[in-house]
Amino acid sequence: MPRRPGLSARLKLTLSYAGFLAVAGALLLAVVWGFLLRYVPDNPQGLLGISPNRYLLVRTFVPAAAVAMGFLLVFGLAGGWILAGRMLAPLTRITAAARTAGNGSLAHRIRMEGRQDEFRELADAFDTMLGQLESHVAEQQRFAANASHELRTPLAISQTLLDVARKDPTRDKDELLARLQAVNRRAIDLTEALLLLSRSDRGHVTRESVDLSLVAEEAAETLLPLSEQRGITLDVTGGAARTSGSAELLLRMVTNLVQNAVVHNLPAGGSVTVHTEAQGDASVVRVENTGRPLPPELVPTLTEPFRRGTERVRTDEHAGVGLGLAIVHSIVRAHDGTLDLAPRPAGGLVVTVRLPGLP
Questions:
Q1: How far apart are CA 309 and CA 260, in angstroms?
Q2: Nearest to 238, CA basis, from 262, 256, 211, 269
Q3: Residue 298 — φ and ψ, nearest 5°?
């Protein structure tokens, strides 16, 4: 916003240094005047007729004092200007870096050298903020590009199907409608997932007491037909684990975890275990499943939007939109929790969610 022009910080510090030095000099001269000259006799003969009297001392002392005060003022201004410049030099670098970041260049870092002090602490905090901001902007750019690509795919398929139907009126309409319905359902699922991800990313969630064990049972009951269809054993174990948060979002979080565990499993004879417990001041949900072995370097990338591992891509009706674990990660962050993914040595994945617990 527009501001009225004012004195710079360097000039203010300079005036402060010079003023402090002038006041200190004036006090020193006042002490000399009060405690020295008061004992000098004020008579024409002086002390015993041989010492100067107060009149002569004043005429000699006052000009010298004025010269000393002038020197102190000039010395204070010059020295204060130099000292203020040296003290504010780190702040100048921080301001330049802030202007560079404001122009869109987030790769610049201050990297201020020297021992720790307030300015270097500020510079380090600013570098950390720039790094997080750069990472966040890059993540958002990748997300926008991937979302555009994912949304464009069903629209392009729908356009192709309509063009084919227009050119071939004799084509089976029921088959065309079924394929259009499937493509449209995928586009709707993707849009709803994007909206849910945006909502959880904002971090504004309604807080209420939620028992994660009941949430896990509800999610397992919803996905029980899917697990039975695939021949997957689905078990819910553990005890009560209460936390504070949005019941709707926490249910979606556990549902996504269980659905991923069922879908990305063995072709038959696999298992999924959902375990809830209270550990100290934390409430824990752990979802463990069987499946194919996962490369360790792949696991940390599974929470990125639209990121799918080669061994985890499905082509059936439960292929998903590539946002399952990304939504889980976002919901966990919105509830001030942590998400940990670890591959099982025998194959499959162990997902552990820790949320702040309630007494």
A1: 13
A2: 211
A3: -80, -35
